[in-house]
Design a protein that fits this description.
Blueprint lengths: L1 E4 L10 E6 L6 E2 L4 E6 L4 E5 L4 E6 L6 E2 L4 E7 L5 H11 L4 H9 L18 H14 L7 H6 L10 H16 L2 E9 L1 H18 L6 H14 L5 E4 L2 E4 L5 E3 L1 E3 L2 E3 L2 E2 L7 H17 L4 H4 L4 E5 L18 E5 L3 E7 L2 E15 L5 H16 L2 H5 L2
Parallel strand pairs: 12-16, 16-17
Antiparallel strand pairs: 1-8, 2-4, 2-7, 3-6, 4-5, 6-8, 9-19, 10-11, 12-15, 13-14, 17-19, 18-19
Helix pairs in contact: 7-8, 7-10
Length: 384
């Protein structure tokens, strides 16, 4: 008999919640196959089987609150009763992301019914969505009594995930414990777009990754933080802590909520290193594989609502940080240039800051510095 235990939780995490059991009592599992996911207020931890065998008992059901090293269930080691079917399904879902496996589990979908379109036949979220859509389309629509249907309407109530709860608490804390203001500006993105167009192919060929906008944003923010140390600081009681390093949090949207993994020492990273670092963090966030260490710290946050179409917003500070920069949708707008009207790709910038630490002059100057660096990327190379 093998005990299935909660992993060792980080010191900053008091307890956790059983999020999803991927197996039911009586199911056969292979060694290293994920049995259950444990959700903390920072990350999702996967608990794999330490040996091949049958899941005999589930002690802590989904939604239960558990502590470090607490007993979750029991596994009996042994051979599979129907090895071929188990191997077939394991091969289909072994490399699928946790969010995809969870989606199939929630809708009771057998992985063998779906043809994976990912690399090596891996099942993707799009595959699952397409399967569900096709299944619903082929189903014969029942005759519905409109009056009965209206009378039978109901709400669906589900518990808030721990991550969502923690995000809510931190946002409320930021609103209640900081003197938050937001200042705005706009930036002409044409110089950067022209630069990308000119060097995109050779950059990708040399570094193996596409040249995006985020690396320019991070470079500009890092340079601005060097010039305005108040923005790269935090309040600790009655003290101001000035950071002599540059760790920038990147806001990433995941199926479980917003997370802010940290890109560390950005002052030492090249444009290619920044692009690779952001891509790695985004993939881990999407697949629920971010570690606690990757979520801890950060002196300043960058968030890009423009990828969802946001034209303008007022981002909320990520405590204990003193400021957050929000980027938005790039949109062609008529602008006055040297007395003439030109159509330029413009983007609004929003800097929310804690007025207890950062004065209006510093906040506006910080944002103007970012604007100037983005509108003339050569400044980043010449340090002017």
């Amino acid at each position: 008999m093998i005990d299935i235990l909660v992993p060792e939780l980080p010191e900053s995490v008091a307890d956790a919640t059983v999020a999803v059991w991927h197996k039911q009592a009586g199911d056969y599992v292979e060694r290293d196959e994920v049995l259950v996911e444990i959700e903390t207020d920072k990350v999702v931890l996967e608990v794999p089987a330490t040996a091949s065998g049958t899941l005999q008992e589930i002690i802590e059901a989904e939604g239960s609150t558990v502590l470090s090293k607490q007993l979750l269930g029991k596994l009996v080691a042994g051979e599979a009763p129907e090895k071929s079917n188990i191997i077939e399904e394991k091969a289909l879902v072994a490399d699928a992301s946790p969010s995809v496996r969870r989606l199939m589990h929630e809708h009771g979908i057998d992985a063998r019914q779906i043809k994976g379109s990912g690399k090596g036949g891996v099942i993707t979220r799009e595959d699952v969505d397409n399967y569900r859509e096709l299944k619903n389309k082929n189903a014969t629509p029942p005759q519905v009594d409109i009056v009965a249907a209206v009378a039978a309407r109901s709400d669906k109530r589900v518990p808030m995930t721990r991550l969502r709860k923690r995000v809510a608490e931190r946002l409320l804390e930021a609103k209640n414990s900081t003197a938050m203001l937001t200042t705005f500006n706009e930036v002409n993105m044409k110089p950067i777009m022209d630069l990308r167009k000119q060097y995109q192919d050779v950059f990708e060929k040399k570094h193996g990754i596409r040249l995006g906008f985020m690396s320019f944003y991070i470079k500009a923010v890092t340079e601005a933080l060097k010039r305005f140390p108040e923005v790269n600081a935090a309040i600790d009681g009655d003290d101001i802590v000035y950071h002599n390093f540059f760790d920038i949090s990147i806001a990433v949207s995941t199926p479980r909520g917003l997370v802010t993994p940290v890109l560390r020492d950005t002052d030492t990273l090249s444009v290619a290193d920044i692009e690779k670092g952001i891509k790695a963090l985004a993939i881990k966030g999407r697949d629920g594989k971010l570690t606690v260490d990757e979520m801890m710290g950060g002196n300043f946050t960058v968030t890009n609502g423009g990828v969802f179409g946001s034209l303008l917003s007022t981002p909320i500070i990520n405590p204990p940080q003193a400021a957050i920069l929000g980027m938005h949708k790039i949109q062609d707008r008529p602008m006055a240039v040297d007395g003439k009207v030109e159509i330029l790709p413009m983007m609004y910038l929003a800097l929310s800051y804690d007025h207890r630490l950062i004065d209006g002059k510093e906040s506006v100057s910080f944002l103007v510095t970012i604007k100037e660096l983005l509108e003339d990327p050569t400044r980043l190379l010449l340090d002017i």
